[in-house]
Amino acid sequence: MSINYEQLADDIVRLVGGTGNVRSVTHCMTRVRFVLNDFAVANGNKEEIEKLDGVLDVVYAGG
């Protein structure tokens, strides 16, 4: 399975509400962490995000 990471990133950003909803993004070896302006937008797309090739899980933390 070959993952198109540019497309994956575009899809994730779109599903979390676009660049205007992203306050910050950080990453480590195994995770990408988004701080969002409006959590409700991304929460409504949780199942769609989890279906993307390359996404193993979606976890909400810190409010």
Give an overview of the whole structure:
This protein is an alpha+beta fold. It is 33% helix and 17% strand. The protein has three helices and two strands, in the order αββαα. It has helices at residues 5-15, 39-43, 46-50; strands spanning 22-27, 32-36. Strands 1-2 form a two-stranded antiparallel ribbon. A hairpin with a 4-residue loop joins strand 1 and strand 2 (32-36). The radius of gyration is 11 Å and the shape is globular. It starts with a helix and ends in a 13-residue tail after the last helix. The mean pLDDT is 92.
Show the helix and strand layout.
Layout: H1 5-15, E1 22-27, E2 32-36, H2 39-43, H3 46-50
Antiparallel strand pairs: 1-2
Kindly summarize this structure in a few lines:
This protein is an alpha+beta fold and 63 residues long. Helix content is 33%, strand content 17%.
Distinctive features:
alpha+beta; 63 residues; two-stranded antiparallel ribbon; single chain; 17% strand; 33% helix; 3 helices
